[in-house]
Amino acid sequence: MENCIFCKIINQEIPSYKVYEDEKVYAFLDITQVTKGHTLVIPKKHVSDVFEYDEELATDVFTRIPKIARALEAAFPEMQGLNIVNNNREVAYQTVFHSHVHLIPRYGKEDDFS
Ligand code: 5GP
Ligand code: ZN
Description:
One of its GO terms (molecular function) is catalytic activity. The chain has one domain: 2-Layer Sandwich (HIT family, subunit A). A hairpin with a 3-residue loop joins β1 and β2 (25-29). The chain has three helices and five strands; from the N terminus they run αβββααββ. By secondary structure, it is of the alpha+beta class. It is globular and about 40 Å long. The site of zinc ion (ZN) has 6 residues, from α1.
């Protein structure tokens, strides 16, 4: 979609640090790392938020998450856990309106994300 920053990232018009990619999803490091390895998982198909998902798209995105979580754990072996966050619409603090799932690695006491 025109003027969508995450569509531009998928199309490599804007650079990103790729974590994972296949024909359905793209995962890349969030520009604001709330903890080390903070990653966004997005469908390649532009949808604004979860209200626009059909079951197939939900399957595409959400079934990939365990694999991407394990890839993060392999890259950051000191991580101890993970928050999975998905904001939908402005009132829920969504700021980029191409649906995305945050994977936020947790490192125990030394990380200050709460
Ligand atoms: P939201 O608040 O919509 O759930 O999260 C949007 C996220 O997108 C934010 O964490 C923000 O840091 C990230 N973000 C916004 N613009 C860019 C960008 O150009 N590149 C990357 N890698 N992340 C971005
Ligand atoms: Zn988009």
